[in-house]
Amino acid sequence: MEFDDVAHIAVSRAAGITRFATTVLRHQQQDRSVPLSQESQAPSVGVDC
Questions:
Q1: Which is nearest to 25 in space by CA: 15, 35, 17?
Q2: What is the pTM of this model?
Q3: Using one digit for the tens of pLDDT, what is the confidence trace for 6-44?
Q4: What are the b/e assignments for 1-40, b being 16+ CB within 10 Å?
């Protein structure tokens, strides 16, 4: 019983870490795409001014 509980906790923690990692990677990809769009817009705004 104790081993099963420990294994269940380990699996649940691993699943939580995996979800956390995937969300962090998604945020990093979004953060990378946002600066690129801002950089592409910034020069055009500067030229317009």
A1: 17
A2: 0.45
A3: 999 999 999 999 999 999 888 877 766 555 555 555 555
A4: eeeeeeeeeeeeeeeeeeeeeeeeeeeeeeeeeeeeeeee
